[in-house]
Amino acid sequence: MTSEIPLPPCSVLLLAGGRGQRMGGQDKGLLPWRGEPLIAHLHRRTRAMSDDLIISCNRNRERYALYADQLVHDDEGDFPGPLAGIRAGLKVARHSFLLVLPCDVPQIDAELLDNMRATASLQPHKPLMIRHGEHWEPLLCIIPLALAPAFEYAWSEGERSPGRLMRSLHATALQCPADDPRLANLNTPELLERHKDH
């Protein structure tokens, strides 16, 4: 992707509102990795990109507040899933694009984030999702705020899958290598341990 494409201003939403089932129910964003909570790594990767850094969290709000301009939480109890967090982010975002990242991809880098924004700016009326190999990554996405009503409508119709919803909205794919280490989901204790030194 060339650097001549102007990067659109965006709000950033970090998803840290899950149940943490693969982590034994722990609050995943606060688990330590390389000496810091996972959320601190994502904060450092994204802080310079936006003056509107939003964290979706359903627990430990006072700890997450250190890393955010705004906090949101699900408007329904019992952890209804990541689409609920995305909807909450869309409702408060201050810019015309919302860049969404899960809290467990601390190895993502500035080049990929810039590529996401540049690619999204070429199709500003469609969501963008990362694809690696044949696999979509719906929680690594950019959503135009103009699509917020479509997200609300889909939710009201019972849709709970962010990926299925964005594909129905003709999402653009940003293709990455199948084994791209920047996309490693460190979502189990074993993966956190395996990646801590390299």
Layout: helices, strands, pairs:
Elements: E1 11-16, E2 32-33, E3 36-37, H1 38-46, E4 53-57, H2 61-64, E5 70-72, H3 82-92, E6 97-102, H4 110-122, E7 128-132, E8 135-144, H5 148-156, H6 162-168, E9 172-176, H7 189-194
List keywords for this structure.
30% helix; Spore Coat Polysaccharide Biosynthesis Protein SpsA, Chain A; 7-stranded mixed beta sheet; single chain; alpha/beta
Walk me through this protein's architecture:
It is built from seven helices and nine strands, in the order E-E-E-H-E-H-E-H-E-H-E-E-H-H-E-H. By secondary structure, the chain is α/β, with parallel strands linked by helices. It has a single domain, classed as Spore Coat Polysaccharide Biosynthesis Protein SpsA, Chain A (Alpha-Beta Complex). The strands form two sheets. Strands 5-4-1-6-8-7-9 form a seven-stranded mixed β-sheet, sandwiched between helices. Strands 2-3 form a two-stranded antiparallel ribbon. Helix 2 (61-64) links the parallel strand 4 and strand 5 (70-72). Helix 3 packs antiparallel against helix 5. The longest helix is centred in the middle third of the chain and has 13 residues, at 110-122. The protein is globular, with a radius of gyration of 16 Å. The model has no long low-confidence stretch (mean pLDDT 88).
Q: Widest sheet: strand order? A: 5-4-1-6-8-7-9
Instruction: Look at the structure and name the CATH superfamily.
Output: Spore Coat Polysaccharide Biosynthesis Protein SpsA, Chain A
SSE ordering: EEEHEHEHEHEEHHEH
Please identify, by name, the CATH architecture. Alpha-Beta Complex
The CATH topology, please?
Answer: Spore Coat Polysaccharide Biosynthesis Protein SpsA, Chain A
- In whole angstroms, how far apart are the ends? 27 Å
